[in-house]
């Protein structure tokens, strides 16, 4: 699914870019040129994104034991950098237009052309963001957000051109372009920042919190403790590492069943490919007060209350119950 959507985005970006170039040729407007320059980024990013999704979807191999999912972060970083550069180019062109004004032509025709491209970008971008979040594909989500930003800037450009037509104030063309360029530059910065965070394995706090909250809500009585948890998202694969405390008298078969139960729960809820690596710990006498097993044959202390798993206490490497 992500590959097919990204393929459509890449093809659409070429068609829209040609349409915006036509509008610029007709109008000579630097504001319209702003839209066309950003579309060059869409074309490049669309095809880089398509290649990266195909690469990220490849299964892990001996050279890439965690798969190829980080290709998405690299692609998104390149896209963000291109957006940033396009914003700087737009500022340069707008300032040059202020210094060396040029006559504008056929603004009404240009409005219709780029207005149509904006509507298409918004529809496709919203769908890509929705599917990117559903499939947990950073490339698809980034591409969708980029298309929506492109659509917003296009709508602003249409409004700016309408204002120029009504007032006949030519310098508004450059002023509108500069305002939109600032928005574009900020969007590029955010994409680069998020991508570098992924490359550096910065924790995705929202994802980690969602996993912890779900496991807490559906925890089993025999899952006495969970700690030293790490969650990473590479492409469409979620990697989860954790230490789980089970009753000390469980045999290997019993423990294996609990690990698979946890893994299946995560897969069903998050609709992901999931790799789970669980280090098993045997419960200690001081943890009896946390153990909710009603008929535990080895209980040495009465049950008080389960230790609630939260973002604040599940990530660190220490068994709960000692305090």
Q: Percent range for helical residues?
A: 55-70%
CATH homologous superfamily label of the largest domain: Cation efflux protein transmembrane domain
Q: Roughly what fraction of the amino acids lie in strands?
A: 5-15%
Q: Tell me the strand order in the biggest sheet.
A: 1-2-3
Domains (count): 2
- Average pLDDT confidence is 79
Order of helices and strands: HHHHHHHEEHEH
**At the third CATH level, what is the topology name of the largest domain?**
Alpha-lytic protease prodomain-like
Q: Class of the largest domain in CATH?
A: Mainly Alpha
Terminal residue distance: 49 Å
Rough shape? elongated
The secondary-structure class comes to mainly alpha
Q: pLDDT below 50 for ≥5 consecutive residues: which ranges?
A: none
CATH architecture of the largest domain: Up-down Bundle
- Rounded to the nearest angstrom, the radius of gyration is 26 Å
Strand-helix topology:
Blueprint: H1 2-27, H2 30-56, H3 71-99, H4 107-135, H5 138-167, H6 172-199, H7 205-217, E1 225-234, E2 237-246, H8 252-270, E3 273-282, H9 311-314
Parallel strand pairs: 2-3
Antiparallel strand pairs: 1-2
Structure description:
The structure is a single chain. The mean pLDDT is 79. Helices cover 63% and strands 9% of the residues. A three-stranded mixed beta sheet has the order 1-2-3, with helices on one face. The protein folds into two domains: 2-199, Alpha-lytic protease prodomain-like (Up-down Bundle), CATH 1.20.1510.10; 205-314, Cation efflux protein, cytoplasmic domain (Alpha-Beta Plaits, 2-Layer Sandwich). The protein is mainly alpha-helical. Helix 8 links the parallel strand 2 and strand 3. 41% of the residues are buried.
